[in-house]
UniProtKB/TrEMBL annotation:
Source organism superkingdom: Bacteria
Protein name in the entry: Cyclic lactone autoinducer peptide
Organism: Staphylococcus haemolyticus
A Pfam family: AgrD
Database matches in NCBIfam families: quorum_AgrD
Amino acid sequence: MTVLFDLFIKFFSFLLESVGTLASYTPCATYFDEPEVPEELTNLNR
């Protein structure tokens, strides 16, 4: 019975560790937005 409980705790810990590892990744790390600000936003004197 103790072995089954230990396996359950180990599996639960592994599951939470995996979720924590996935949550630490930045989804925007490979996403590259516009490299410069568009002219419409920088030209405030119309």
